[in-house]
Amino acid sequence: MTVTGTDIVELDRIAVYEAVRLVELAQDKDWERDTPCAGWTLRRLVAHMAAQHHGFAAAARGAGSAAAHWQESEDLREPAQAHRTAAAAVLAAFAEEGVLEREFALPELGRSFPGRTAVGFHLVDYVVHAWDVAATLGVDVKLPDDALGAALAVARRVPAAPDRRGPGFAFAPALEVPTGAGTLEETLRLLGRAPERWPVRG
Fold first, then answer.
1. Contact predicate 103/113, CB 8 Å
2. Using DSSP, how many helices (H) and how many strands (E) does the chain show?
3. Torsion-angle region of residue 135: left (phi > 0), alpha (psi -120 to 50) or beta?
4. Is the dihedral of CA 145, 105, 23, 176 positive or negative?
5. Domains and CATH numbers, the chain
6. What's the whole-number mean pLDDT along residues 189-195?
7. pTM, entire model
8. Are 14 and 143 in contact (CB under 8 A)?
9. pLDDT (tens digit, 9 = 90+) per residue, 14-24?
């Protein structure tokens, strides 16, 4: 699918808001639940999400190479509030004029990328992380087809070589995509998630 620069910012905003909505559903008893991110509780996952928001916000403003912007907070007592604040920060940064023409330094990927590409990376992250939170809580993720389609287009370009996947990397090894898989399922499986292991609970 073809997505314009303006569209990618708007689709990213939709994914971020959906992730915020889902995180806000978590109750005290939910924070120590396991998530589809192996070894991470929901509390740790949401702390990671907040840190990524702050890192991408810094990258949008030319400061992404500073490791401090990407560090997870050690204070995990109020994960939903921290995530909400971080989401607002990244959306404000992405809304700035000319953001798609800037270079984003993304240390986890080892180099800088054009703004449009970087926002696409953020979009796929938050489609997947929104699903991670929804799966942990046993609820549905609600995203429009155009956001899902744009995320899939990015997921199909993520390197699948074994030396780029697994522990220490952003994504687990890709899983086989069955014939007839939907857009979200294909995205998840390309990025190492097995949605059949995380059914919606009533």
1. yes
2. 6, 2
3. alpha
4. positive
5. 5-197 (1.20.120.450)
6. 94
7. 0.92
8. yes
9. 999 999 999 99
pLDDT at 98 over 70: yes
Q: What are phi and psi of 41, to 5 degrees?
A: -80, 170
Residue type, 31: W
- The residues pairing with 104 across neighbouring beta strands, listed in sequence order, are 113
Q: How confident is the model at residue 1 (pLDDT cuts 50, 70, 90)?
A: very low
Lookup result for tokens 């995203």: 143
